[in-house]
Amino acid sequence: MTTRTLAVVSAGLAVPSSTRLLADRLTAATVDALGERGVTVTVEVVELREHARDLADNLVTGFPSAALRASVDTVVGADGLISVTPIFSASYSGLFKTFFDVLEKDVLTGKPALIAATAGTARHSLALEHALRPLFAYLRATVAPTAVFAASEDWAGGEAGSPALTSRVRRAAGELADLVAGRPPAPPADPFADPATSFEDLLRGSGG
């Protein structure tokens, strides 16, 4: 058995949230699909609501807090990525976009990714294709063909979700599993590879 790391980014604001519920369903299905391919999985979840203030500070200062840096390292160092956002005003949430805005250029290049979203009505489902998919294409991630959208009616029968949602979740999870299983494991993150402050700035600050 080989081992891979899966990072899960959830931008839900409420506790509990349908966004986190969908993220958990996708994660469980992906872990099962990878297990069928002889791959064991370590899952690390990043709840963006816990980093709301840190993300705002990062935008204005250019420096992440220790907690935010740890979550960024989790995403950058993972072998695969599941990203789920609520849809606000026909697009991803500002919190979701801000997290990906603070990532360094090209850190998601080639990373297998699955995109998903939640909203109150299925009318917002096209946001996956006109907002999320272009975002991850710009970030140069390798996005699974199937994106998963869950509206309020998909949870009408409880947390198990509708049969149609279950089918989409399984299909998307299988696609992500194929991408992750076929990719070499990500190298461990080097904490000294990209220092927050350049040596030039350090010299200027010390009067050198």
Topology of this protein?
Layout: E1 2-10, H1 18-36, E2 39-47, H2 52-61, H3 66-77, E3 80-88, E4 91-92, H4 94-101, E5 112-119, H5 127-138, E6 142-143, E7 148-151, H6 163-181, H7 199-205
Parallel strand pairs: 1-2, 1-3, 3-5, 5-6, 5-7
Antiparallel strand pairs: 3-4
Helix pairs in contact: 1-6
Number of discrete domains:
1
Overall, the morphology is globular
Measured by DSSP, the beta-strand proportion falls in: 15-25%
CATH architecture descriptor: 3-Layer(aba) Sandwich
- The named CATH superfamily: Flavodoxin domain
Q: What is the C-alpha radius of gyration, as a whole number of Å?
A: 18 Å
CATH class category label: Alpha Beta
CATH topology description:
Rossmann fold
Average residue pLDDT: 89
Main beta-sheet strand count, sense and barrel state: 7 strands, mixed
Structural class, from helix and strand content? alpha/beta
Distance between the termini: 53 Å
How many strands? 7
GO molecular function: oxidoreductase activity
Protein name: FMN reductase
InterPro entries: CE1759_FMN_reduct, Flavoprotein-like_sf, FMN_Rdtase-like_dom, NAD(P)H-dep_FMN_reductase
Domain NADPH-dependent FMN reductase-like: 6-155
Description:
The chain has 208 residues and is α/β, with parallel strands linked by helices. The protein contains 7 helices and 7 strands, in the order E-H-E-H-H-E-E-H-E-H-E-E-H-H. It has a single domain, classed as Rossmann fold (3-Layer(aba) Sandwich). Strand 3 and strand 4 form a beta hairpin. Helix 1 crosses helix 6. The longest helix has 19 residues.
